[in-house]
Amino acid sequence: MRDASDQPPRLAEGRPGRIVLFTGKGGGGTTTVAAATATLAAQRGHRTLLVSFNTVGGLAGTLDHPVTGVPLELEPGLFGQQVDLRDAFERRWDAVRPLLDAAWTHAEIEPIEAEELAALTGVGETLALLELRDQLASGRFDLVVVDAGPAADALRLLSFPETLSWYCRRLLPPDGRFVRWIRPSLTRSARLAARVGNLAEPAYDVLTRLRATGADLREILTDPARASVRLVLTPETASLAVTRQTFTALSLHGLPVDAVIANRVIGPGGGDVWRAGWAASHREQLTEIEGAFAPLPVLRAAYRGGEPVGLEELAAFGAAAYGSLDPAGVLGTRVGTVGEAPLVERTEDGYALSFGVPFAERGDVDLARMGDELVVTVGPHRRLLALPAALRRCDVRGAWLRDDRLVVSFVPDPDQWVRA
């Protein structure tokens, strides 16, 4: 095995690198499907990196190869990486710490240690996404395949760039809390004001970098040409229910899904009553799955007599599932749901903002206006949506579901519009 850094860059000619992320209900075989996709893509000529951030996800066992925190070549064109987030944090912290060291000294404040910051909520998600961005930008890979783990973990990871940008917007100028915090106050002592001032510049610089990072990551993840999610499920009622909820949440956040993969499908044959019963059940479930997610392609991975472990078995597993489809390409789209920005249209008395929320029911949806943002809740999932400039000067009149889309009606507020 060889370190990817020893290899010369080689991208597929005329085609930018892509990220494909796999998630689904826990126990549905997400790791196996991700590994099979990466192995097949490499064998079909794509320089591919398979990466996992879950230390208990079993990637090394599935590959039957050791994987470490740096990309290692497992066979020609295929690299594996088990990211160590602690090591990734320490490398990035070494770059930021000199910026803050002088500030700690001048402000007479005890420095914050790496271990303290690493425990903060959101640090793991930030590091994971930065590692993905860096690998994609390195020019070494045509395709980065991500075992994103169970749906709850994947949704937290994929929605985090927007959350990060939201927090930075609340803190940074022109009206952010950070500005109010560093603004001189008559009640603040000169000594305290000096200490705060010494921290202001490096803190502002870090926040500005974080805001740019969040925007950069969000741009990558919502562009179907650069990134897509593939949902893995088994043909069972509980698995389908979780997958529908996941699809709704991804749609709410504008994250593109390009395929659904039904794993462990039992087909007809074998002659025994037990197998025939399961085959009939899976046939019914597959019909429902294909109807629910149409026109997205629903790939089928058959239940195998043995666990697909090792590169040879994974390649065969992937070839059976994908057939002639390119595992590195965009497999399908579902217009009006995922991977698109909210649509704003003029109406007779104002504006209508709409975006896809497939499978959502009326009772699942809740709306709230918070300043220049719309808080949209669908079931357990929430998105803080920054309103376009025109809608900030409007009032929300109502909302309804129409053809898998949430439509929000806005009417102009006369007090905020210039009158002729």
Provide a descriptive summary of the structure in words:
It is a single chain. The chain has helices at 30-43, 59-63, 85-107, 114-118, 123-137, 151-171, 177-182, 190-221, 237-252, 273-293, 311-322, 389-392; strands spanning 18-24, 48-52, 72-75, 78-82, 143-150, 227-233, 257-265, 298-302, 343-346, 351-356, 365-370, 373-378, 381-386, 394-402, 405-412. It is an alpha/beta fold and 420 residues long. An eight-stranded mixed β-sheet has the order 3-4-2-5-1-6-7-8, sandwiched between helices. It has a four-stranded antiparallel β-sheet with strand order 9-10-15-14.
Q: Could you outline the blueprint of secondary structure elements for this entry?
A:
Blueprint: E1 18-24, H1 30-43, E2 48-52, H2 59-63, E3 72-75, E4 78-82, H3 85-107, H4 114-118, H5 123-137, E5 143-150, H6 151-171, H7 177-182, H8 190-221, E6 227-233, H9 237-252, E7 257-265, H10 273-293, E8 298-302, H11 311-322, E9 343-346, E10 351-356, E11 365-370, E12 373-378, E13 381-386, H12 389-392, E14 394-402, E15 405-412
Parallel strand pairs: 1-5, 1-6, 2-4, 2-5, 6-7, 7-8
Antiparallel strand pairs: 3-4, 9-10, 10-15, 11-12, 12-13, 14-15
Helix pairs in contact: 1-11, 3-8, 5-6, 6-8, 6-9
